């Protein structure tokens, strides 16, 4: 089934701005006062057509934009010459749209035509303006209409440059991530490939010797234990060498994400986590990022609470929301409990002997609890993380 495209009067990105301009159409409507019969009907028809063109200019593509703009200026000329000289001030609509031209040549051409139109209308309306006392306002308003396109064009160019800058920054971030992944892959291959191959060969050797030479098999098994502990140290060294993100830094990013999703954030505890290693902070930061992402995507909550508790032996971080709860997510419940995000958190926490729990929050919502030891020991070697 093909989804229907939602009808919009004006593009959503402009907000209420286009509607504000519609207020000024009240004045040309008032200028029709005193007319009747076919002349009134033609005047109303032209204003309605002007309104349609005003809307179309917000949606028009580059190849049709100039045609719509030219038709708008033609209507202004007719309404000014035939009905009221004060309809010349409808040129403020046109001056706004001229500023939207990104091509400098087209901008100058449209501005030149618009300037010629204003001069011609001013000369034709000079006598009427003088007799009604409107001549005093003609010059400053005409100058404002000629200056407006420059201001609008400058503002639009700044917006475009900011958008291009954001896109360029996003590309740079993606390139940095890609390069970081490639570096990690190379390091893992260079440092771990040989070690894992050695463990595989020794395991095969033990399998053959376990019956023929049990003592030799035990010695090889102890060698595998030492090799595996060395491999674990290498993994931790690689993780420690990565660009570590502290919990305090991640909370700033989480607050921005939740704010964009209109979810209030409350943080309790010391986010600095004094005495906690960079490795532990980096893994806890990744868990916070994943937990906040799940809240934004699945919870439908409007409040989030992150509490940080430190004891002499462990660090506990709890993320709670007042949403629909993990058991009420329907098909999303499985994704939230057993998805790649949760598996990734579990695998990272396993490196530092940490754990996580995802459960329904009493009173409604979801509670994610992450616990890590403050000191991680590596078996007999007594190495701390």
TrEMBL record:
Q: Does the keyword Transferase apply?
A: yes
- Keyword set, alphabetical order: ATP-binding, Kinase, Membrane, Nucleotide-binding, Transferase, Transmembrane, Transmembrane helix, Two-component regulatory system
InterPro entries associated with the record: DesK/YvfT_N, HATPase_C_sf, HATPase_dom, His_kinase_dom, Sensor_HK_TwoCompSys, Sig_transdc_His_kin_sub3_dim/P
The record's EC number reads 2.7.13.3
Reaction(s) catalyzed by this protein? Answer: ATP + protein L-histidine = ADP + protein N-phospho-L-histidine
Segments passing through the bilayer: 16-33, 40-59, 65-86, 107-126, 132-152
Pfam families registered for this protein in UniProt: DesK_N (PF23540), HATPase_c (PF02518), HisKA_3 (PF07730)
Keyword DNA damage on entry: no
Q: Which domain of life is it from?
A: Bacteria
Matching PROSITE patterns, A to Z? HIS_KIN
Domain annotation Histidine kinase: ranges = 187-376
Q: Output the Gene Ontology terms for molecular function.
A: protein histidine kinase activity
Would you tell me the protein name for this molecule? histidine kinase
Tell me the organism.
Paenibacillus silagei
């Amino acid at each position: 089934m093909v989804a229907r495209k939602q009808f919009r009067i004006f593009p959503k990105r402009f907000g209420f701005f286009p509607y504000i301009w519609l207020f000024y159409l009240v004045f040309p409507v008032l200028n029709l006062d005193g007319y009747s019969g076919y002349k009134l009907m033609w005047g109303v028809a032209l204003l309605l057509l002007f309104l349609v063109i005003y809307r179309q200019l917000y949606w028009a593509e580059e190849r049709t934009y100039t045609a719509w703009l030219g038709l708008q200026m033609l209507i202004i000329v007719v309404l000014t010459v035939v009905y009221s000289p004060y309809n010349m001030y409808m040129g403020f609509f046109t001056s706004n749209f001229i500023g939207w031209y990104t091509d400098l040549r087209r901008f100058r051409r449209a501005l030149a035509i618009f300037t010629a139109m204003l001069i011609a209308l001013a000369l034709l309306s000079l006598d009427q303006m003088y007799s009604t006392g409107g001549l005093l306002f003609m010059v400053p308003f005409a100058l404002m209409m000629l200056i407006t396109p420059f201001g609008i064009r400058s503002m639009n160019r700044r917006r475009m440059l900011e958008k291009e800058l954001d896109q360029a920054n996003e590309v740079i971030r993606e390139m940095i991530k890609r390069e970081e992944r490639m570096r990690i892959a190379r390091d893992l291959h260079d440092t771990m490939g040989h070690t894992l191959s050695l463990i595989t060969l020794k395991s095969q050797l033990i399998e053959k010797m376990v019956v023929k030479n049990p003592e030799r098999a035990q010695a090889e098994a102890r060698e595998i234990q030492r090799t595996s502990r060395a491999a674990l140290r290498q993994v931790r060294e690689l993780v420690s060498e990565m660009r570590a993100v502290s919990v305090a830094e991640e909370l700033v990013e989480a607050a921005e994400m939740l704010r964009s999703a209109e979810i209030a954030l409350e943080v309790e505890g010391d986010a600095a986590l004094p005495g906690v290693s960079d490795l532990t902070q980096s893994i806890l930061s990744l868990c916070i990022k994943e937990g906040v992402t799940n809240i934004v995507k699945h919870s439908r909550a409007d409040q989030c609470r992150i509490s940080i508790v430190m004891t002499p032996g462990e660090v506990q971080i709890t993320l709670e929301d007042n949403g629909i709860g993990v058991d009420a997510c329907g098909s999303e419940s499985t994704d939230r409990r057993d998805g790649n995000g949760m598996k990734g958190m579990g695998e990272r926490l396993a490196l530092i002997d940490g754990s996580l729990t995802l459960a329904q929050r009493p009173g409604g919502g979801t509670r994610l609890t992450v616990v890590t030891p403050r000191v991680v020991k590596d078996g007999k070697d007594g190495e701390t993380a």
